[in-house]
């Protein structure tokens, strides 16, 4: 089967960074589905692993943690899906990724694709939807109905995770949504998604919140550049607030949060699949809930660019764009 893979970690400019290869077709066993991949999207995790993780014994490593495809075969323990089902998922970090014609994925982290979306539109959502949902409702425990004027600040609202976070908040909660963005096009984007207020994260945030006359946010979700905004977050967050992040700052000193009794939460959407937690099926369930919201017209795709086909050349372009830090929404690749 065709795949895009690599062996040696390094910069995207290296000729070995991503390569078109032929790999053996895997076999579905146990809870696994064998999925013929139709479309994939690219996330920051792809670039981080490509830059930092080499393989052993000249094995090929396939990246990709967002996919839509058709179930081609099932393992003997599969109970929720059948051959021919069209599914979407983000996969597992400790298995081969979706940048291949065929991929094995555990049914407990898979959902049925929204009926109203094309594969390219749906492929933009799984990883970011899982990340946003788990952060909001599992980690921060944001209530569906909060006291009046309760607000949440989403730092980096125009990115992949931020784009779906704002939509979930708008559809499932009554929180006042404050988002950050720095360019005209991204400010408009987050407003369209449902942000009530937009701050410019290239300037101090606390002063902007005060200027707008807003209450101190009880919740803060930082999707990017947390280290640059940490002192601001400490100042602006409400006492007994809840702070969550998903990026990887080199250092994170949370001691300044002590006087406000702020709780700190890290979200890593691969935790459930990596440790085979008893509740890993929750990812399948939440993907089904998101699909229902999509089909009801309440959540829209966050795809901003589509490249075709799925090959090394186009994946390199996508990685370069992600690494620029200026991506709006998601980059999707379609077809082999």
Automatic annotation (TrEMBL):
User: Which Gene3D superfamilies does this chain map to?
Assistant: Medium-chain alcohol dehydrogenases, catalytic domain, NAD(P)-binding Rossmann-like Domain
Does this UniProt record's set of keywords contain Lipid metabolism?
Answer: no
Q: Which InterPro entries match?
A: ADH-like_N, ADH_Zn_typ-1, ER, GroES-like_sf, NAD(P)-bd_dom_sf, Zinc-ADH_QOR/CCCR
Asked whether the UniProt record includes NADP among its keywords, one would answer yes
Q: Which domain of life is it from?
A: Bacteria
Task: List the SMART domains hit by this protein, alphabetically.
Answer: PKS_ER
Indicate the segments forming the Enoyl reductase (ER) domain, all copies: 10-333
Q: Which UniProt keywords apply?
A: Metal-binding, NADP, Oxidoreductase, Zinc
Instruction: Return the similarity comment.
Output: Belongs to the zinc-containing alcohol dehydrogenase family. Quinone oxidoreductase subfamily.
Q: Which NCBIfam families match?
A: adh_fam_1
**PANTHER family in the record, alphabetically?**
QUINONE OXIDOREDUCTASE (PTHR44154:SF1)
Q: What is this protein called?
A: Zinc-type alcohol dehydrogenase-like protein
Organism of provenance: Acinetobacter calcoaceticus DSM 30006 = CIP 81.8
């Amino acid at each position: 089967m065709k795949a895009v893979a690599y062996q040696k970690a390094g910069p995207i400019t290296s000729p070995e960074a991503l390569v078109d290869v032929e790999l053996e077709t895997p076999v579905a066993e146990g809870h696994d589905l064998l999925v013929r991949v139709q479309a994939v999207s690219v996330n920051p995790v792809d670039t981080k692993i490509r830059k930092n993780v080499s393989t052993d014994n000249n094995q090929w490593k396939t990246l990709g943690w967002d996919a839509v495809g058709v179930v081609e075969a099932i393992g003997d323990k599969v109970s929720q899906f059948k051959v021919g089902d069209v599914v979407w998922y983000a996969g597992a970090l400790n298995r081969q990724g979706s940048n291949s014609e065929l991929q094995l994925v555990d049914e407990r982290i898979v959902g049925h694709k929204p009926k109203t979306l094309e594969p390219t539109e749906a492929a933009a959502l799984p990883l970011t939807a899982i990340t946003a949902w788990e952060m909001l409702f599992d980690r921060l425990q944001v209530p569906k109905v909060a006291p009046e004027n309760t607000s949440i600040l989403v730092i980096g609202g125009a990115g992949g995770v931020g784009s779906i976070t704002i939509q979930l908040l708008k559809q499932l909660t009554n929180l006042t949504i404050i988002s950050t963005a720095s360019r005209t096009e991204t400010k408009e984007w987050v407003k369209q998604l449902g942000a009530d207020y937009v701050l410019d994260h290239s300037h101090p945030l606390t002063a902007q919140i005060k200027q707008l006359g807003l209450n101190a946010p009880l919740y803060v979700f930082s999707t990017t550049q947390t280290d640059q905004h940490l002192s601001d977050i400490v100042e602006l967050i409400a006492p007994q607030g809840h702070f969550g992040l998903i990026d990887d700052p080199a250092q994170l000193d949370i001691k300044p949060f002590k006087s406000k009794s702020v709780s700190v939460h890290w979200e890593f959407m691969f935790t459930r699949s990596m440790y085979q937690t008893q509740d890993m099926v929750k990812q399948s369930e939440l993907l089904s809930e998101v699909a229902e919201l999509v089909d009801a017209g309440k959540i829209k795709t966050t795809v901003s660019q589509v490249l075709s086909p799925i090959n090394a050349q186009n994946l390199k372009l996508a990685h370069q764009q992600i690494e620029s830090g200026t991506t709006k929404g998601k980059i999707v690749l379609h077809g082999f």
